[in-house]
Design brief:
The protein has one domain. The protein is α+β, with helices and mostly antiparallel strands and 173 residues long. The longest helix has 51 residues, at 11-61. It has 2 helices and 6 strands, in the order H-E-H-E-E-E-E-E. It is elongated, with a radius of gyration of 25 Å. The strands form 2 sheets. The protein has a 4-stranded antiparallel beta sheet with strand order 1-2-5-6, with helices on one face. It has a two-stranded antiparallel ribbon with strand order 3-4. It has helices spanning 11-61, 86-93, and strands at residues 75-77, 122-125, 133-137, 144-148, 152-156, 168-169. A hairpin with a 6-residue loop joins strand 3 and strand 4.
């Protein structure tokens, strides 16, 4: 008779290991979620800064801002009726000198600059040249309006447009 004994895990030991793994996973998920939210905010803020820079560089290459009407008041582009991003996108990607001021390939299907939450950015340009941008939008919040001492300002509504603390502003770093 062969009296060799096989060493193996008992059912209780396996259940304890599985339970420890589940507890560790439960502890990590909120941290991973927070990291993803921070990455979305950072990506949105960086894209806004790139757009501000592209619009300013366009202004140094041409005598006007993209889509500017000479002598006009400041204009806010929020992709609502009459204020389409397509005017800016067209100027930055399809201009007489064929200079690509900003890559917007992922948004050309919608003709909009979209943030990480698939909402259009609010882009305001100092078209009257007074050094103050008057930004106004009613896209998500009724009667949103602000004045900024900049020549170009971009805002993202953030993950929840009704929560003003989640908004991202190109003029606040």
């Amino acid at each position: 008779m062969n009296n060799t004994r096989h060493e193996a895990f008992t059912l209780i030991e396996l259940l304890i290991v599985v339970m420890v793994i589940m507890i560790l996973t439960g502890l990590l998920l909120p941290a991973i979620s927070a990291i993803q939210r921070a990455a979305e905010r950072a990506k949105t803020a960086a894209r806004a800064q790139v757009m501000v820079h592209a619009i300013k560089v366009y202004r140094t290459s041409y005598p006007t801002y993209p889509g500017q009407i000479q002598g006009a008041v400041d204009c806010t582009y929020d992709d609502s009726v009459g204020q389409k991003h397509s005017v800016i996108i067209d100027a930055l990607t399809n201009n007489p000198r064929r200079i690509i001021f900003n890559e917007v390939a992922e948004n050309l299907t919608t003709n909009s600059y979209l943030d990480s939450w698939n909402r259009p950015y609010v882009i305001a340009i100092d078209e009257d040249g007074d050094g103050i941008v008057n930004m106004s939008s009613t896209l998500y919040v009724p009667n949103f309006s602000t004045s900024i001492q900049e020549t170009v300002a971009i805002m993202s509504w953030g993950p929840d447009p009704s929560n003003s603390t989640g908004r991202l502003y190109s003029w606040i770093r």
